[in-house]
Write a structure and sequence with these properties.
Length: about 220
């Protein structure tokens, strides 16, 4: 009886299974994919946001897309704030005209040299309020059109012209005291122009006053008690 040779059985190879396991280990999980997608969305959104300081005639809308994206309650607040800024704009213009006519001196019964000083500072505050109102109006219509308007900035929008008024008044005093370098405005037109620029660029003006305060008072490392 001849010995029958049993053919060797093919042993299953484990290489493909091992490769599959390695691929599954290297493949990101569903949680990682969702997290990466979230980071990509945040990066895309931040890079696609328009700059409110740059003119954009489309404001991110398609052609003939004329409907407002704000709900009725938000549009009510927007109309109120817009009306307020328009009233501040015309009130500052009216006070400029009244100062030119000398009415504040007549109202307060101020005469002589004191009337000239009062008139000068009335020019400063009215022009500063005008500059702050124009800046706020420009900011208002841009953030509304581009979807950045929100109620939490209402205080800033309402108080910005008042801040500009006060900063223009202080800048006028600093010019008269020769604390700020530069030519002191002498004519009425120069005073109005200086007050307007100070009110319009109130943030930069406040930063300048911060520098002046460092020169006058110096810096200290001790915390106030």
């Amino acid at each position: 009886m001849t010995d029958r040779k049993i053919p060797p059985q093919n042993k299953p190879t484990t290489a493909p299974q091992q490769n599959n396991l390695e691929e599954e280990a290297d493949a990101p999980s569903a949680e990682q994919l969702q997290k990466n997608a979230g980071h990509a969305h945040e990066h895309t959104s931040s890079s696609a946001d328009p700059n409110v300081d740059v003119a954009d005639p489309t404001d991110g809308k398609e052609r003939y897309q004329w409907e407002s994206s704000y709900p009725p309650e938000a549009r009510k607040h927007i109309r109120f704030e817009s009306l307020y800024l328009v009233l501040v704009f015309f009130a500052s213009l009216a006070f400029l005209l009244a100062t030119w006519k000398g009415l504040p001196c007549d109202w307060l019964n101020v005469t002589g040299k004191s009337s000239q000083i009062l008139r000068k500072y009335c020019y400063y505050i009215s022009a500063g309020a005008l500059g702050g109102a124009i800046f706020s109006i420009k900011y208002m219509y841009r953030v509304v059109a581009r979807g950045y308007w929100h109620i939490d900035r209402r205080l800033w929008r309402l108080l910005s012209p008042i801040i500009s008024l006060g900063v223009a008044f202080v800048f006028g005093a600093l010019f008269d005291a020769s604390i700020l370098s530069g030519r002191t405005p002498a004519s009425s037109a120069a005073i109005v122009g200086t007050g307007f620029l100070t009110g319009y660029f109130a943030d930069q003006a406040i930063a300048k006053m911060y520098e002046v305060a460092h020169v006058l008072f110096g810096t200290t490392t001790k915390s106030p008690k």
